């Protein structure tokens, strides 16, 4: 499958599905189905194109799954950072993130958690690069505002 | 990455996937290897192209027996035809107006084109690798002249052909490439009438520059053609 690092992309697609479904078992099943569907129809495409297709398939499968049954968050494991301050900061960022719009959360996930390039995000969301850049900046500003309300951001 | 961006990344951490290793080990087994993919594309290269390659190779191999002293000129004049086969086969999708359709198939047009160019380029190099040393040893002319006389028409026609295919679309491109190939071929045959004019040390530099320039242009045009098959994205 082109020059993609499969292991890394698996983690990223899984994270994307987990963000959508909030259920690790379902997210993993959808991740695997995404790779199988991709391999079945679109082998040997450029890296940029491959990423766009993978996220589109994953997004569509999550929507299908969501329509079938409203997923219940069976587990929402919070990673265990070693320092207490880290836990508090992480929790407050999570809380602040959850108060953002779903679209803003998705943009921040794609850009900062999954390290996708602006062009690839534009391809996935079918909007211009300029719009992606503008929306990410706006989402970051909203997040900062939410964190300031909590008093965890100076 | 700023502190906030790192915190965003940490906040999106998901629980560790449980079945990742097992899935990836099975998934990698299922994937088609690059060699298999390239070989699979060999079957899609037109029969006429394979026949053309075989005919050129046979004609070149028999030339020392059939045309004796003119073997060098004869083999050199075949090289533009070899380049014509290569260029016209690589432009088959555009010729039949199938490029857009092929861009959405299982294997992207870019991968298919790259695989076919590898096969065709490989075949071209095989023919060159057989013909150039053969005429170098069998003809009375100095080895470097003979080698350059075989290689230059091939690269010159390839470069001109790829340039034409990128600029002109459809069947007109193939007519233009054919005209260019025959023009170069006829030039080589005409050069046969006054060999002393071309077979002198002063001309060796000219041939080397033309061959190197054509090779560079061929590689450049090849890259442009492959890049040209990428999707058109909105660019700010």
Explain this structure.
The complex is a heterodimer of chains A (154) and B (236). Chain A has seven helices and no strands. With 154 residues, chain A is mainly alpha-helical. Chain B has 236 residues and is mostly helical. Chain B has one domain (35-227). Chain B has helices at residues 3-11, 20-30, 34-42, 47-66, 71-90, 92-95, 99-102, 109-138, 143-167, 171-191, 195-198, 201-228. Chains A and B meet through helix 1, helix 2, helix 4, helix 5 and helix 6 of A and helix 1 and helix 2 of B.
Task: Give a short summary of the structure.
The complex is a heterodimer of chains A (154) and B (236). Chain A has 154 residues and is mainly α.
Give helix % range of chain A: over 70%
Radius of gyration of chain B, CA atoms, in whole angstroms: 24 Å
Chain-averaged pLDDT of chain A: 81
Q: Count of DSSP E strands of chain A?
A: 0
| Helix/strand class of chain B | mainly alpha
Low-confidence stretches of chain B: 232-236
Tally of separate domains of chain B: 1
Helix content of chain B: over 70%
Element order of chain B: H for helix, E for strand: HHHHHHHHHHHH
Q: What's the CATH class label of the largest domain in chain A? A: Mainly Alpha
Give the termini separation of chain A: 44 Å
Distance between the termini of chain B: 23 Å
* Tally of separate helices of chain B: 12
Query: Oligomer, anyone?
Result: heterodimer
Number of domains in the coordinates of chain A?
2
Q: Largest chain-chain contact?
A: A-B, 50 and 35 residues
Question: In the CATH scheme, what's the topology name of the largest domain in chain A?
Answer: Arc Repressor Mutant, subunit A
The CATH architecture of the largest domain in chain A would be Orthogonal Bundle
**Largest pleated sheet of chain B:** none
């Amino acid at each position: 499958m082109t020059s993609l690092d499969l292991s890394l992309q698996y983690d990223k697609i899984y994270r994307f599905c987990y963000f959508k479904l909030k259920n690790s078992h379902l997210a993993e099943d959808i991740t695997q189905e995404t790779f199988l569907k991709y391999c079945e129809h679109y082998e040997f495409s450029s890296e940029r194109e491959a990423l766009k297709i993978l996220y589109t398939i994953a997004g569509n499968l999550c929507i299908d799954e969501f329509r079938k049954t409203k997923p219940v968050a069976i587990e929402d494991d919070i990673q265990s950072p070693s320092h207490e301050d880290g836990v508090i900061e992480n929790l407050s960022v999570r809380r602040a993130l959850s108060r953002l719009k779903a679209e803003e959360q998705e943009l921040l996930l794609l850009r900062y958690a999954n390290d996708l390039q602006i062009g690839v995000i534009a391809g996935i969301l079918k909007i211009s690069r300029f719009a992606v850049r503008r929306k990410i900046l706006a989402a970051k500003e909203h997040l900062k505002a939410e964190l300031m309300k909590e008093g965890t951001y100076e | 990455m700023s502190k906030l961006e790192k915190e965003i990344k940490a906040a999106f951490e998901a629980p560790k996937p449980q079945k990742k290793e097992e899935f990836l080990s099975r998934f990698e087994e299922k994937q088609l290897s690059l060699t298999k993919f390239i070989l699979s594309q060999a079957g899609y290269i037109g029969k006429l192209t394979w026949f053309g390659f075989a005919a050129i190779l046979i004609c070149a191999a028999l030339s020392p027996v059939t045309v004796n002293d003119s073997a060098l000129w004869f083999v050199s004049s075949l090289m533009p035809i070899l380049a014509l086969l290569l260029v016209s086969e690589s432009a088959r999708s555009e010729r039949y107006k199938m490029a857009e359709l092929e861009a959405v198939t299982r294997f992207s047009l870019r991968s298919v084109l790259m695989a076919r160019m590898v096969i065709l380029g490989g075949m071209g190099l095989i023919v060159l690798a057989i013909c150039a040393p053969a005429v170098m040893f069998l003809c009375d002319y100095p080895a470097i002249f003979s080698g350059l006389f075989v290689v230059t028409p091939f690269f010159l026609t390839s470069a001109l052909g790829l340039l034409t295919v990128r600029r002109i679309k459809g069947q007109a491109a193939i007519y233009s490439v054919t005209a260019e190939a025959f023009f170069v071929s006829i030039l080589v045959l005409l050069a046969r009438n006054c060999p002393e004019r071309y077979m002198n040390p002063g001309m060796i530099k000219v041939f080397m520059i033309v061959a190197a320039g054509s090779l560079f242009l061929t590689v450049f045009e090849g890259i442009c053609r492959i890049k040209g098959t990428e999707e058109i994205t909105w660019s700010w």
